[in-house]
Design brief:
This protein is of the alpha/beta class and 275 residues long. The chain has helices at residues 36-44, 63-67, 72-78, 94-101, 113-121, 157-167, 212-221, 254-259, and strands at 50-53, 58-60, 85-88, 106-110, 126-128, 141-146, 168-178, 184-192, 205-210, 224-232, 235-242. Helix 6 crosses helix 7.
Length: 275
Amino acid sequence: MSTSREFAPPTTTAKARTGSRPRRLLDGVPPSWSATAYADALDAGQGPLFLRRTDGWLLPLEVERWCAAADAADGSVLERCEGTVLDIGCGPGRLVAALGARGLPALGIDVSEAAVAHTIRLGGRALCRSVFDPVPGEGRWSTALLLDGNVGIGGDPVALLDRVARLVVPGGLLIAETVPVDVDERAQVHIVHLAGPQGGTDVPFPWARLGTPALVRHAARAGWQPEAQWTTGGRCFVALRSRRTSNSADPADSTAVMSSQRARKPSADRPVADM
């Protein structure tokens, strides 16, 4: 999830749900990503959809771009991917599908069943789970992706980056997308569609927004070394190399990793891939 635009004052006022206590994350999973507003937007292939901070400011979500085919900016990421690829927060699956078309074994994970179902319909492999849940092939992925604003997952960048470091092989690659301004922000946010009189507000959850300097700073704390930075199509990317060394992780083996990730045909009542 990402946008090239800043949080901006809303043009339509959405009233926050009152009398409800903000729910804590369960293993890093905000319930809002499985809510109807997000699922409906993915099914329609368009918004409007926003993250709304508790102070009322809005961050537009680029649903149309996520549901389209991978573009030139995405291509600049895909051409850097190595070996087996884990797309964290894969959304509707454009990157997983594009990686498969390039012959790279890839798995998407997402907490939204609608997103996972969409990925599978595109021919990609995907599982419905949080990055903080057990993930197939832990410690054996060659490349991990945190694009479309997914460096914000859980609102704790160091914890997220530390978790990703444990998913990739020692010396593994992480490609992350940052916002095109120097920002290091934590906020409680809602998913808001603004289609109805109440704005479709869901329960708040923690999120983070990072510019490149902040990401590099937090990545160093989590054992990552910057390898490259680039900007294309108004989007900013950073490639990081894991400094982790371990004798416990097996060498990356795309056949072994992907053999446990073949998506089962989705059923009508649970359109996601199961293990």
